[in-house]
Task: inverse folding
């Protein structure tokens, strides 16, 4: 069974930065487009960022050039560096393949508040 554990969330003030990390121990990690998702309270889970096997990235429109997604194919890890955080970024953040092909982890909570 694949166990995904996200980490790096926390309670921060608006304008602060956080780096989220996860490891997805699937055999074909290096051949799979990966993603970070988030679920804002009361809303559906949404796509935050994706990264292709070669490093090409996409971001949700709300990111506004504030976030960066990285992958390490050797370590099978994903990182989401989030800068200039806003209160509306508060939510539970998950990593997965872009098509959510592995079981969801518990997510890591990001709370942005004064």
Result:
């Amino acid at each position: 069974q694949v166990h995904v554990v996200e980490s790096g969330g926390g309670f921060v003030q608006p304008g602060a930065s956080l780096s989220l990390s996860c490891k997805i121990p699937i055999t074909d990690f290096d051949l799979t487009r990966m993603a970070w998702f988030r679920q804002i309270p009361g809303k559906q889970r949404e796509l935050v960022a994706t990264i292709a096997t070669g490093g090409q990235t996409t971001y949700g429109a709300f990111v506004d050039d504030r976030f960066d997604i990285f992958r390490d194919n050797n370590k099978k890890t994903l990182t989401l560096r989030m800068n200039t955080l806003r209160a509306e970024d508060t939510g539970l953040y998950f990593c997965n393949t872009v098509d959510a092909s592995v079981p969801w982890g518990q997510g890591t909570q990001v709370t942005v508040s004064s």
Summary: The two ends are 40 Å apart (CA to CA).
